[in-house]
Amino acid sequence: MRICVYAGSNPGELPTALGATLAGRGIGLVYGGGRTGLMGAVADGCRAAGGRVTGIIPGFLERKEVAHHDIDDLRVVGSMHERKTLMAELSDGFIALPGGIGTFEELFEIWTWSQLGQHRKPCGLLNVAGFYDRLVEFLDGVVADGFLKEDHRRTLITEDDAGRLLDAFAAYEPPTGGKWLELETT
Question: Where are the domains of the chain?
Fold first, then answer.
């Protein structure tokens, strides 16, 4: 079991213990392969708690020396598109932490793939310190304005606690019916 985490390459002001929470539940981390910012902190937290970390980074970023070489599996790919595709293939679910436009772009792309039936994996926002409150409000307005179906809106799970978000993933039922995967809950 592996969860893909999208997070900022800048540290920001919002710490999270998601990496340790994943490791504590025996869930591996797949992420963008960087050593900086919130993404590096999540990888370090997962490794420090005994978790397995897989990083996917395009060559042009690896050459800029931002790659995290102290993880279990670092894969260098040719482009951002290859990075996102491989991250999706290796992952059983997706979580966005606070971040900037890269984090938003990755989240919206994978959530769109879910809406289009390209995967049946849960997508979530870890709403650290209310970071995503305005986005959640906006998305609810998009539903009210008729541009997003409520069924699809509900597939983006939002929690402010990593454990509760993983519990919601364990209970996730894709819009096409059936159960997702069995996740250990604590």
Answer: 2-169
Instruction: Encode pLDDT of 39-56 as tens digits.
Output: 999 999 999 999 999 999
Tens of pLDDT, residue by residue over 103-143, are 999 999 999 999 888 899 999 999 999 999 999 999 999 99
Q: Whole-model pTM?
A: 0.91
CA atoms within 13 A on the CB side of 67: 20
Q: At a CB cut-off of 8 Å and minimum separation 6, what does 153 contact?
A: 139, 140, 142, 143
- The count of C-alpha atoms lying within 13 angstroms of the C-alpha of 113, restricted to the half-sphere facing its C-beta, is 17
User: CA torsion angle for 104, 109, 112, 114 (degrees, to 10)?
Assistant: -110
Fold of domain 2-169: Rossmann fold (3.40.50)
Cα–Cα distance list, 154 to 7, 64, 70 (Å): 21, 39, 37
Cα(88)–Cα(95) distance, rounded to whole angstroms?
12
